[in-house]
Amino acid sequence: MIIGLTGGIGSGKSAAADRFASAHGIHVVDADIKSRVVVEPGRPALQHIVDRFGSDILLENGSLNRAALRERVFQDVDQRLWLEALLHPLIREEIANDLASATSPYALLVSPLLVESGQHAMTERIIVVDVPEATQILRTSQRDGVPDAQIKAIMQAQAKREDRLRHAHDIILNDQDLATLHAQVDALHERYLAMTTGATP
Asked: Are strands 125-130 and 27-30 parallel, antiparallel or unpaired?
């Protein structure tokens, strides 16, 4: 069983995924990490990006300047759509290969764009980590040190909170402390174990 885990920027997806992995030994595939793999130096996708945006999109060591690229594509919808058309199929292939290697009772696919990218088609259930939008902005600003306007642009490109929740089979409300988050993850883990063994969840 493959379970998708998603949520907007700053919602706490990583903290939830870390709990599934560290406390319960669940195989976690992170779409953000896969998105970095497909644009590593020597990969064809990186050359396509340089051809489109110029060599100033690279850092001195030849790797992608992700912050510069993010700034460019979130200012221009056409550029963002071009980039997504290039990267999403490559990321999906990387994800599929990794999920196929899972040996835990179920596997977790963590992706901020689970719904928008079509990656949810690879999953049988979806968990949404949900927080109020003001909390997303505050946490992301504290974590990344980026302006509120850039955070809001990223949020605009992600599914609306209501759209994500409409796809959810399970919701983790992450507006309190880490212990509260962990308790919700632990309860879901028990439910998923019951589902994989055929017991009533």
From this structure: unpaired
Percent of the chain surpassing pLDDT 70: 99
Whether residue 194 is annotated as binding a ligand: the answer is no
- What's the sign of the alpha-carbon dihedral 89, 11, 148, 30? negative
44 CB-side CA count, 13 A: 4
- Residues in CB range of 195: below 8 A, 6 or more apart: 1, 106, 201
Asked if residue 57 lies in contact with residue 45, where contact means CB atoms within 8 angstroms, the answer is no
Query: Was 104 annotated as part of a binding site?
Result: no
Residue 36 backbone dihedrals phi, psi, to 5 degrees? -80, -35
11 marked ligand binding residue:
yes
Residue 113: predicted pLDDT: 85
Whether 12 has a binding-site annotation, put simply, is: yes
| Alpha carbon separation from 21 to 105, 177, 182 (Å, rounded) | 12, 19, 12
Enter the pTM of the model.
Answer: 0.82
Decide if pLDDT at 101 tops 70.
Answer: yes
Tell whether residue 13 is among the known ligand binding residues.
yes
pLDDT for residue 158? 76
Domains of the chain: 2-193 (3.40.50.300)
- Is 15 annotated as belonging to a binding site? yes
Q: What is the pLDDT of residue 199?
A: 64
